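Dear colleagues,

As part of the handover before I leave the project, I'm documenting each prediction I ran so the next person doesn't have to rerun anything. This entry is a single chain, and its sequence is reproduced below.
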Amino acid sequence: MSFKHTLLILLVMFFLGSAYPTAKLGLNSSIPPILFGAIRMAIVFIFLVPFCKITAVNKKYFFSLIGFSLCMGAGVNFFLYLSVNASNILSPIVIGAQLSIPLAIVVSSFYIGESISLKKWILIFTSFLGIILIAFDPKIVDEILGIILICCMAFFYGLSQVFSRHLKVLDVKFTNAFMGLVGFIVLISLSIYFEGNTLYYLKNMKLDAWLLAFHHGILCSLIGHMSMFYLYKFYPVGQVLPFYALFPVFGILLSFLIFGEIPTLIMVVGGIIVVTSVFLLQKTR
């Protein structure tokens, strides 16, 4: 990989890792979690739709497009921000988000019949073992709900990647704009129903809260994910995906710098097990 592309992917991993501590800052600014996700998806849609060529979607792609949009736009954001909101310690959920890769492989085996080698099954098992180890850390006995929610997020992220495999022929900008629209409609509906006072929260959002929302919508979603699609044009997926193992490093580092959060020894050991397993899993063919 060229030097400039290496710098780009490191920047992308920084943005993805920053999503967790900056989400906590946003939620601390009195933005309800589901509404935060809805705002993020609205930003994605608004910024992408001017660059999209609106055409009728072929019927054979429609189910996968809806599935991808519901999973990535609604499911991922719903459980991501609920997990951040439920957590006082961010490191476990940053590490837990790595489970999206092994879960995507498991879902693929059921959904599209992909075979999983014994080596992959071992790595999948060890990645979950690392999360179980973290769950037994006495310091996070009150953080179990956050870990469960981030595992749900990882499941929906993995499922969205399975749906996305059927959408390669569609324009990336259109796919993500449609995802943003569907995600916004679902999340704003859930926010109105469960959180209420939506207009009140929107009217009283401070500048720093809007900046954090734009950080997630533009830097994390648009620049982050679109840059990955850009890199896939130059390199095979197997050369790009292993870099995903780096975003927990940035996430934990930023959590320390912003909140002074220091991971325990059990978190470090469990994190190393998870990140190493996922890294090797993405290198294994």
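The radius of gyration is 18 Å. The chain has 13 helices and no strands.

All the best with the project,
I.
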